[in-house]
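User: For a teaching handout, I'd like to show students what a predicted protein-ligand complex looks like in token form. I'll give you the sequence and the SMILES for 2-acetamido-2-deoxy-beta-D-glucopyranose. Please answer with just the structure.
Assistant: Understood, here is the input followed by the structure.
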Amino acid sequence: MWSLYGIIVCGVVFVVGQSSLAPYDVRIEYYKAETTKDLVIGTDYPYFCWKLPLTNQRDVRQMGYQLQLRSENKLVWDSDRINSSQSIHVPYPFKQKLEELTHYQVRLRVWTSALETASSWTLWIPFRTSVYNFQQYLLDHNDEVSWIGSTQIYMNELRKEFNVSNTSPIQSATVFISGIGYYELYLNGDNVDPSRKLDPGWTTYQKRTLFASYDVTSKIKLGMNAVGVKLGNGWYSQEQYLLPSVPEPTYGPPRLMFILKIIFNNSDQMNVYSDQTWKGRQGSIIHDSVYNGEFVDGRYDRLNWTRVGFTDSLSLWITPEILPSPVDTTVNGQLTLQDMPPIRAGPDALHFEVEYDVDEDRSYLSKKDIGEILGASLKDKGILHPISVIIPTLNVHIFDMGQNMVGWCRFKFHGPRGVGIHIRHAEILSQAVVSTGKATGGIYTDNLRGATASDTYILRGDPNGEIYEPRFTVHGFRYVAVFGSPTPLLIDDVECPIVHSETTVKGHFSSSNSVINQIQHNIVWGQLGNLMSLPTDCPQRDERKGWMGDAALSVNEALYNFDLSKFYLNFLTLIKDVQLLGFVPDTVPLSFGFYPADPNWGTALPTITWQLYRHYNDIQIL
Ligand SMILES: *[C@@H]1O[C@H](CO)[C@@H](O)[C@H](O)[C@H]1NC(C)=O
Ligand SMILES: *[C@@H]1O[C@H](CO)[C@@H](O)[C@H](O)[C@H]1NC(C)=O
Ligand SMILES: *[C@@H]1O[C@H](CO)[C@@H](O)[C@H](O)[C@H]1NC(C)=O
Ligand SMILES: *[C@@H]1O[C@H](CO)[C@@H](O)[C@H](O)[C@H]1NC(C)=O
């Protein structure tokens, strides 16, 4: 006995319910309207998908649809009824292209063979357009927008205050930002999107650097405002663990490109750009590396550094240098909108489209039939709590997450100012005692090879305790060993967000065979942990690269389990970025291996293309 639910993308009719419901699961350019908070598209000609309203009749077909588009509460287009059965990849039906930098709302209704009358309308679904040709936009503003950073210090905190003096109401405020390797954006004290992590995605930076856009209309106020950006090395600066045959990239220090565009109701505009009016310093992150973790000195944290009126007599804030753009226009390099869901942590990273847990009441398979699956559930809201802690020696705590996971942990520490705590991550323990199932030894890290996968945090000595959570690194682990906490740690002092490119569970498999069920469990966890803006081969050791062989072998599995259209479309673009005379390399971005790739590695380009087409039935992909 087995069951396999819901593996087809848009346009499936499920059987339940009432008449005159609205179409649902609307997608604009593949982005699910329901789960995308601020839907930004980089095209003037989007495609739409939807599912037909639920009905209890069989053999229901779509007879027609109608789309309406409005902007600033004015109807700008009405398609009227279009007699067509198409409900996936429906091309934008309006003659007039979408304008850039504009907020729109769309709604739709359908006619089906089940009903004489039209379905209800969907709600108005908001989305907005980006700047379409960003490269040109930057050229046009050449003297104003700069990439800023420092070759003198590790400048990883940059800030600026600005005065919004126009008293007309703010109609929109939009940020365009690229901070590489990684960035975090703060406005008036708040992280603008705290679940968004390790952004932007990894690319061959000289060919393509990604920027993101944020709608910050509600965060900007009349009078003084402050913006702050943290930067990290990510894949840009260092430590890529290459074969001697491939030179380490010499990109240079992290850098920031920032544009805030405010449009007022009276049509006035105001722009804030990254330039030498900003100030920068080295913040509390002394060092950060994807493989080797962070070294953070909490004593250098400055509360309120992204608020207006901040002063800091204790650290050196200096004028940033203007650094070259990461993009090399002589090789046709481009700065493009990151056109895929970002990496996120915790509950915002994973959505569900199928019933996931075996439900004792409704399923013919009970938990007893299928056997207990070892490990955590994907339904644990994206945050794991340790299932146990052992204290092998004084001042060492080893937490067991009960499940190999990818992300990091958030710790609550107490202790005197200046004391350092060291955190290591491992997949297994060195000496598990079989008879008790308990480990007596420490963690086993030989399989991490050159990656230290460790974080060090120096306490600032807050009497109420302090939270440490890494920002610019990611670990693959089941066990976390904490060395040197001055006070005993409890299980409640540790929680570990799961981190991966945002996606939706689309398929689920369970059978009466507990071994196969456990394999499926391991597959989905292994797959999620390797969705790091591109498909990686592993999340823990000194590798974690876009190995083409691994990507090609896993793509069919990945698309059955998860919605990853945009993720793989982005990867295809990255592959094309490094194609040379038709050849593709073994890893993308090229950081290991050769041109041309081994045959089964190079076939990733046609294989991923073909599997995407098979799963999404989108002829444009070919
Ligand atoms: C669409 O189909 C409806 C119902 O059959 C019909 O009344 C209408 O004229 C058709 N519209 C067009 C544009 O063909
Ligand atoms: C901001 O600009 C307005 C208008 O020019 C001015 O009245 C106000 O004093 C400025 N605020 C600050 C804090 O400089
Ligand atoms: C913008 O101005 C128009 C009149 O020009 C007014 O109708 C509208 O309510 C204003 N919008 C906001 C957000 O204040
Ligand atoms: C930070 O800002 C908050 C809110 O403005 C204020 O209450 C607090 O005193 C500030 N803390 C420091 C250390 O400046």
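For the handout, you might add this sentence: The helical segments are 134-140, 367-370, 514-528, 548-561, 565-577, 599-602, 604-616.
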